[in-house]
Specification:
Mean pLDDT: 93
Distance between the termini: 48 Å
Radius of gyration: 17 Å
Low-confidence stretches: 115-121
Strand order of the largest sheet: 1-2
Number of strands: 2
Largest sheet: 2 strands, parallel
Shape: elongated
Number of helices: 0
Length: about 220
């Protein structure tokens, strides 16, 4: 725990089931690494390359992803093509690249099942502004209450995903499959569903906020 692993090369390394609580991975290359069921809580992931990594069942709670208070999204980690199935995340990850990633069954809902659930112990919302999920698989992903301003879901599989109470203002769903996705209570102000598939099969649209301001 609290290891300084910044700028090291872990490309394709087997790090499965490791405990990296508080470890500093600033600028580290973790591309293609096996991080399945690994604990990355409180880790420093500034500019970390996690593309093509296996993060199945991993936890990423409250990581540090910016080098200073300016929250420069260029500092955000890269998860392009990674396997994040069943990952559990509580974080600010604005600007992160999730293009082509597998997020099936991923849990981005802020609450966790333990004492203190629903109190100040856990964050009320996760923040994923400006993230790119183009071509990603979010089948059955839990995205409740996530703030996702300007997120891109171009061509993504969102079947059965849960976006209840999420802020999807100006998100782009062009070509995405939203069949069975739940948008109850979601803010769709300026969101574009032009070319989206299964829009008539999406759930909760009648309960969405600013649906009249969505483009479809």
């Amino acid at each position: 725990m609290y290891l300084d692993l910044s700028d090291l090369d872990f490309k394709r390394a087997n790090l499965a089931r490791s405990d990296f609580y508080g470890a500093d991975f600033t600028g580290a290359n973790l591309s293609g690494a096996d991080l399945s069921h690994t604990r990355l809580d409180r880790a420093v992931l500034i500019r970390a390359n996690l593309s093509e990594a296996n993060l199945t069942g991993a936890t990423i709670f409250r990581p540090t992803i910016y080098s200073d208070l300016s929250s420069n999204t260029l500092d955000a980690p890269n998860f392009a093509g990674a396997n994040l199935s069943n990952v559990h995340v509580q974080a600010e990850l604005s600007g992160s690249d999730f293009r082509g990633a597998n997020l099936a069954g991923a849990d981005f809902a802020p609450l966790e099942v333990r004492a203190g659930q629903g109190t100040m112990v856990t964050a009320y919302r996760n923040i994923l502004k400006y993230c790119d999920f183009s071509g990603a698989n979010l089948h059955g992903a839990q995205m409740q209450r996530v703030v996702m301003w300007f997120a891109k879901f171009v061509g993504a599989d969102l079947t059965g995903a849960n976006f209840e109470d999420a802020d999807l203002s100006r998100a782009d769903f062009a070509g995405a499959d939203v069949s069975g996705a739940n948008f109850a209570g979601a803010d769709l102000d300026g969101a574009s569903f032009v070319g989206a598939k299964g829009f008539d099969q999406a759930k909760g649209l009648d309960q969405a906020i600013n649906r009249d301001r969505a483009i479809h």
